[in-house]
Amino acid sequence: MQRGTLGQWDTSIAGGEAVRAFVPAPLPPKPPLALDAPRLQRLERALLALGRLDAIAALLPEPDIFLYAYVRQEAVLSSQIEGTQSSLSDLLLFELDAAPGVPLDDVVEVSNYVAALEHGVARLREGFPLCNRLIRELHEKLMARGRGATKAPGQFRTTQNWIGGSRPGNAVFVPPPPQAVEPCMAELERFLNDPAGPGALVKAALAHVQFETIHPFLDGNGRVGRLLIAFILHHEGVLRQPLLYLSLFFKRHRAEYYRQLDAVRLSGDWEAWLDFFLEGVAVTAQDAVDTAHRLLALFAADRARILPRGRAAPNALRVFDVLRHRPVANIKLLADRASVSFATAARAVEALEQLSIVREITGRARERVFVYGGYLDLLARVGGEA
Ligand SMILES: Nc1ncnc2c1ncn2[C@@H]1O[C@H](COP(=O)(O)OP(=O)(O)OP(=O)(O)O)[C@@H](O)[C@H]1O
Which InterPro entries match (predicted)? Predict the structure, then answer.
């Protein structure tokens, strides 16, 4: 629906020049969203896919295995949108205190994203509301180390920013003036917690655009805005684990994603955005379900290959169990977690190497690092790396 501009243009000073900055009207849109039959079907399809994802996550024998891998893969993808070069194995190497193959700043940013996600989950679990304080805390974690440390971590901006273009005057979009950020974010917080507001999925769709339009931080608005979607769905009880990440969908359809953000601002077409968003949710949730199934099938197949190894099988299986949780590991970590001696873990790894389940990646004789290749390959395929 074309509503025209839902908001107002204020004059703001940026980089010494006067620009027209956009202040969005508070949510929900007026007139209300047109939820016609085809759109309701899309909504239903997306909710159904989310239900399947929630069910599989709840039914998995060890849900944290899936969450661990999925959260890290999302961190990599979301940070890649921002421009970092690290891969999942770089992140896992970094977490192991081993040198990753990319600049440290890149992997630190990905690691910050994991920290922000885990922080948000822990906060919500302890009953903290989905509020602006939490949003600022997420930003603080995201920007804590590396390049972002100079970008006012955890604070709403006090200067004018802009999107696209070399200067404010030729920017694609100039978000609200700094003095409007607090009031706009207060309105968004009210909307997020309004019991009379829309259902979780529509709420997440609307809130994401509004957040990006306000652009309350100096940097990291994309990543925090994407986290917000997962947290809204989790907080509203649609997903027991924050397992839905649209980064890959937004990355694959970046031009369309940006076009839709612009269309909301320029013509008030929230419905076109909602359709795009719902498509993303349905596709992403289905992909996540497929990945969980593939992961389970991989584990079962590899386990079946280990079993015939006779006397070596029990220890190899113990070490294999650890690798399912930590697909990049050294012998010490494997020995500690499998509760076996260093020598036993080393022998077990040798057996897994002979089966081509693990491979050594450093080429060194000492402080070797082993990866569960099938697992990493599977997640790399999800991220479009392979
Ligand atoms: N024309 C636009 N109108 C509103 N928001 C936009 C527009 N173009 C891009 N955005 C949003 O701005 C985000 C980028 O903002 P910012 O650079 O602060 O975040 P980031 O997390 O560092 O980057 P990225 O999202 O690229 O990872 C995009 O992800 C998108 O959500």
Answer: Fic/DOC_N (IPR025758), Fido (IPR003812), Fido-like_dom_sf (IPR036597), Fido_containing (IPR040198), SoFic-like (IPR026287)
